[in-house]
């Protein structure tokens, strides 16, 4: 299946069980109802403290429960973030590829290592400096256009 086939009929419905579960759990725990249930559990636990004499077993219940939930949620949230990140990068890549004046060198930069990303960051810092020098901070252009425009300005005779 190519990219056109995957998007022509809408999203593919061959999601893994974990993918579907992670999506549902992430959505469910992000609701006000989930927060209210969590608060209710803590309130009930705290209220039962005097009944159990604040025993170690009483404390162990909340400690164990929250530890297990936290441990499992790390994987669920990470899976959801990974999926969202890939989707976002694909959308940005499509925008870059479709815009005639965008720099194609930015497509798939998420695969670069940190050192390569720092090199690109320096280029964009230079672009910001060039924009500031030309008093056009609200204008946008590619690095190549910025370099060309800046060089042309330097070569042009100044009018006073």
UniProtKB/TrEMBL annotation:
Name the UniProt record assigns to this protein: Low affinity iron permease family protein
Top-level taxon in the UniProt lineage: Bacteria
One protein family per Pfam: Iron_permease
Organism: Tahibacter soli
Keywords of the record: Membrane, Transmembrane, Transmembrane helix
Segments crossing the lipid bilayer: 21-46, 58-77
BP GO terms, sorted: transmembrane transport
Family matches, as InterPro entries: Iron_permease_Fet4
């Amino acid at each position: 299946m190519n990219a056109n086939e995957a998007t022509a009929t809408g999203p593919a419905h061959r999601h893994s069980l974990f993918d579907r579960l992670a999506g549902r759990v992430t959505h469910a725990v992000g609701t006000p109802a989930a927060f209210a249930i969590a608060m209710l559990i803590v309130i009930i636990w705290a209220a039962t403290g005097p009944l159990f004499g604040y025993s170690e077993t009483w404390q162990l219940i909340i400690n164990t429960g929250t530890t297990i939930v936290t441990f499992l949620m790390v994987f669920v949230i990470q899976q959801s973030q990974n999926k969202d990140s890939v989707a976002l990068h694909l959308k940005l890549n499509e925008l870059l590829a479709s815009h005639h004046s965008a720099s194609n060198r930015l497509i798939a930069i998420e695969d670069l290592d940190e050192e390569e990303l720092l090199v690109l960051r320096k280029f964009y810092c230079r672009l910001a400096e060039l924009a500031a020098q030309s008093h056009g901070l609200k204008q946008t252009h590619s690095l190549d256009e910025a370099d060309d425009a800046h060089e042309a300005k330097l070569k042009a005779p100044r009018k006073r």
